């Protein structure tokens, strides 16, 4: 059976972890994959870690990594990748701003031969000025520096290169 690891970094998401895991498990319930969910606590200061430990997995494996401090999303994803031993790896934030239901479509593209499937959100939800200007400024500022390469994709390239060296 094809194995899939879903890696989800989180920071102070104690109240939403159970729902996220349930939604991911629901997506995979009707699919023919062996699922492992890898949750990476990026130094949360709330009850996130204890909330994660209370989740009882059914029909899937649940692994948790707890980082000593907040290293950032990219480092948390890299930590999750270090545990992933599967045919397919999917990274997704657990705040449900990106619907886990898209994973089924993404897996179909992979089954059709795509090596990398990247979902990009077309529209952002309405945000207040204080939360909306910061990402906008960062994106405009960093386009020239990063040449439109997301950090997630950069991590993926590094991980692919590293695994081909083994």
Automatic annotation (TrEMBL):
Organism annotation: Bartonella apihabitans
**Which Pfam families has this protein been placed in?**
Glycos_transf_2
Q: Which GO terms describe its cellular component?
A: plasma membrane
Key word Repeat present: no
Alphabetized UniProt keyword annotations: Cell membrane, Glycosyltransferase, Lipopolysaccharide biosynthesis, Membrane, Transferase, Transmembrane, Transmembrane helix
Task: Kindly state a single biological-process term from the GO annotations of this entry.
Answer: lipopolysaccharide biosynthetic process
What name does this protein carry? Glycosyl transferase family 2
* Gene3D superfamilies in the record: Spore Coat Polysaccharide Biosynthesis Protein SpsA, Chain A (3.90.550.10)
Limits of the Glycosyltransferase 2-like domain: 5-137
Which molecular function GO terms apply here? Answer: glycosyltransferase activity
Q: Which domain of life is it from?
A: Bacteria
């Amino acid at each position: 059976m094809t194995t899939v690891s879903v890696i989800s970094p989180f920071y102070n998401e104690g109240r939403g972890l159970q729902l996220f895991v349930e939604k991911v498990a629901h997506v995979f319930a009707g699919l023919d994959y062996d699922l492992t969910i890898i949750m990476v606590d990026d130094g949360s200061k709330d009850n996130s870690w204890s909330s994660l430990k209370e989740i009882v997995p059914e029909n899937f494996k649940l692994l948790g990594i707890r980082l000593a401090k907040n290293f950032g999303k990219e480092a948390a994803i890299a930590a999750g990748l270090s545990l992933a031993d599967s045919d397919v790896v999917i990274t997704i934030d657990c705040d449900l701003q990106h619907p886990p239901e898209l994973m089924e479509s993404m897996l179909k593209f992979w089954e059709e031969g795509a090596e990398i499937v990247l979902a990009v959100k077309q529209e952002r939800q309405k945000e207040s000025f204080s939360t909306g200007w910061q990402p906008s400024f960062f994106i405009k500022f960093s386009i020239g520096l990063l040449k439109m390469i997301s950090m997630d994709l950069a991590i993926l390239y590094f991980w692919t290169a590293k695994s081909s060296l083994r």
